[in-house]
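Hi P.,

Sorry for the delay on this. The queue was packed all week, but I finally got your sequence through. Input first:
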Amino acid sequence: YALPVFAYRQDGSRTEFFRDMSVRLRDLPGVLSVGAVDPIPFSGDGSPVGSFALDAGDEEAWLRNRAAYHEIVPGVFETLGIQVLAGRAFELLDNEPGAEPVVVIDQFMAERHFPSSDPVGKTIYVASAGLVPEDATATPARIIGVVEHAKFDGVLDEGRETIYRPHLATGAYLMNFVVKTAGPPELLIPDVRRITREIDATLPVLSLRSLDEVVSLSMAPTRFAMVLLALFAGVALTLAAIGLYGVIAYVVRQRRFEIGLRIALGADQSRILNMILWGGLRLAGAGLAAGLVAAIILSGTLRTLLYGVGQADPITYVAISALLLAVSALASLVPAIRAASVPPAITLRAE
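Then the structure:
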C-alpha cells in the first residue's frame, strides 16, 4: 500500500492503518501469519541504506558503518521464514505509540560488530536512511534480537548487514504486506480487497502477487542471459563436433593405405575402430584439459550468474567433461566405421 500524504498526514495515522490491516488479515481463515515490510524481498526496488554507530560520538563510525534499513510490521520474520537466532522478534507492542525504540539486527552485523559478545540488550545509534552522517540525528535503540541474514535485493545478491525497525520508528507511507497461508493464496484476494475498502475505501490495492511470482520476475534478466548462453553453447558444441568430424575424416582419408594394409595383414574391424576412436578422443582430451584450465580461471566473470554453483564445482565440470567426450566419440565414430568397413583390396588398388 502507498498511503496518500494528504490523507495520512497526522502522526500515528499511518502506523494505525498498517496495524489495523495486519490484525484484520491475521483473522482471515487459512492465514498462518501476516507482516509488512518495505521493500518486499526480490522486488528490485533496492533496500534503503543508512548509517549507524555503537557510540553516537564516533564520527568515523558514522562514515564507515552502512546498513540496509527495513521498516516492518511485526510478523514479517515468521511469514518470510527468517529464523530468530538470539533474543526475540518484534511484538505488536513494539509498534505502539510510546514504545521503547528497539531494533533487530541480522547475523552479518552481529558477527562483524559483536564478534565476542551477545548483542542482545546493547544500544545502537541509528540515523534515518538517506541522511549523511553529519546531518543525521542519532536515535538510540536497544537491540532485542538477531535474525539470520536474508537476501532482499535479489537471489544472486548477498546484500549487506541489515537493521530492522518497527514501522513506528519512521512512519513510512509505503509498506508491502506479506501473508502466509495454509492454502492457495489466490483465494484470499477478494477478502484482502474487501478489508481494504472497509478500512479506507479510497485506497487502491497496488499489486497482489505470490512470492514465487516476485522471485521469478526478479530472476528474469538472469534467466534470459542464461538461455542465450545455453544457445550459444549449443551452437559452439555443434560446430566443435562438426570440426572434429572433419579432422578425423581427413586423417582417415590420409591414412587409408595404412588402414587397408593393417586389415590385409589381419587386423579386425574392432581394432581399427578403437584406433581411430582413441585418436579422436586424444585430440578432444587435449582440448578439454586446456578448456578446463581456462574455465576455472575465467569462471569469476560469471560469478554473478551462478547460484548454488561454485567457481570450481566438481559435479559441473565432471558432467560437462563427460558430455564433451561423448560428443567427441560420436563425431569420431562415423569416420571410424567408414574406414573399418572398406575392403582392403579396394584401398590398396587405389594406392
